[in-house]
Amino acid sequence: MNASEWKSGLLAPTGMGEWSLDDIDGFEAARGLLDALISAYSARIAAAEGEAAMQLRVEQQTCVTERRTLSVRDTETVERIRREYPARLRTVRGEVV
Prior knowledge:
The chain has 97 residues and is mainly α. The protein is 73% helix and 4% strand.
């Protein structure tokens, strides 16, 4: 990486492709939303019983899988999470949407 690439915000780790600082910021925001959603599901699961708890675990596991497979290079998924998951998080927390 040369000085002009660094100044432009382009990062290029060996073997990992290229992405910008904005891509990294978006990825971290999406991952943070997933972490918050997983935590909110945990709180709901602790208060639920039976079939309701089972359904919440399934929904939580979907988020865990999505977090595990999320990539900084997958800007479409990152943008979708950042666009859709704040409302989902409020719903799971029981906040007014």
